[in-house]
Structure formats: C-alpha cells, structure tokens
Amino acid sequence: MTSTLESHQQEDQVVLLDAVPHPAADAAEPFIVASDRRLIVSYPIAESDFERFGPFDSDDDPFCAVLFPDAVFHRLGPPGDDDLDIHPLASHGLNAYSVHEVTNSSLAAEISAVVSAEPVRRHFVITFRDSTFECVASDCTVVGVFGAAEIASREAFSLVR
Predict the structure, then answer these.
(1) What is the 3-state secondary structure (H, E, C) of the chain?
(2) How many CB atoms neighbour CB 73 within 10 A?
(3) pLDDT digit string (tens) for 13-48?
(4) What is the sign, positive or negative, of the torsion defined by CA atoms of 46, 49, 53, 56?
C-alpha cells in the first residue's frame, strides 16, 4: 500500500532555472534575510555566470539577491554537494550548484493543505557546497547582481522591510 506522500513524491519534477545565477562552487554559505512573508537569499555567483550577469570589475566578488515573495516555508541545511544523492529529489534531477523549481511538488502540496490557497505555492531548491536551500513561495525573482557581498546584503535588508 502506497501512502499519499509517497504517491506525491512520484510526481515531483525538478526543473533547472537558468534565469537565476548558479551558486559558486568554492564560495561561502548563502545569506538569508526574511520577514513574515518575504525572503531574500544572497550568494556568490558561479564564475561561469559572470559574463551573462555582468560586466564586473576584476576585483569584484559578484553576489546575487533572489527574492521569494509570499514565502510560507524555508530551510537551509544538509545535504551539501558531497552527499546530495541522499536528498529525496536527487533521483528527480537535483543538481549541485544549481537553482531549481520542483513542479508537482509534494512539499508544496503538503504546505498548501495547511496554509490558505492564495497565492499559488511553488517549491524552489538551491544547492550549495555545504547545504541545500528549499523554499515554498509564490515566485522566485532575481532582484539584482552586485559586485560585492556587502552591497547584496544591504539590498536584501532594504527589500525585506
């Protein structure tokens, strides 16, 4: 007999979001700023995205700030890139150092069952070197790519207020 949660997990589909910068492989952990309904994650972007999201000066350390409006759930913790294969979504295409949306998400369905139906809940996953970030929110929007962590952090604080 299959439980409802197990049958929902069979529906989870992981889709890469290329419009959001990939996290840098050798970088520090992300920085999260959250209020009751808005959440922003700032992290250093992969060097392979410098040209796409730049231009940057040679002494820049590019960080992006990603907004998750109407966030009702988030977590940051294991697994990291070394043990990403233990994540329940690994077999559905979860990649290291990437930004994903999980369509037909069992987690979003579970949370929507206990939270009001509006707005639509979407499940996002960002994988980092030492951790994985997951969020259920109405959207995922890059609010800026900045030349330094301090600038990204200031912007994150100002947007969450």
Answers:
(1) CCCHHHHHHCCCEEEECCCCCCECCCCCCCEEEECCCEEEEEEEECHHHHHHHCCCCCCCCCEEEEEEECCCEEEEECCCHHHHHHCCCHHHCCCCCCEEEEECCHHHHHHHCCCCCCCCCEEEEEECCCCEEEEEECCCEEEEEECCHHHHHHHHHHHHC
(2) 17
(3) 999 999 999 999 987 689 999 998 899 999 999 999
(4) positive
Count of structural domains, the chain: 1
- In this structure, are residues 108 and 122 in contact, taking their beta carbons and an 8 Å threshold? yes
pTM (predicted TM-score): 0.89
- Going 134 to 140 to 143 to 144, the CA torsion angle's sign is positive
Residue 76 belongs to what domain range? 4-160
**What would the 3-class secondary structure string for 106-129 be?**
HHHHHHHCCCCCCCCCEEEEEECC
Cβ-based neighbours of 1, under 8 Å, separated by 6 or more: none
In the block, residue with structure tokens 């970030």: 133
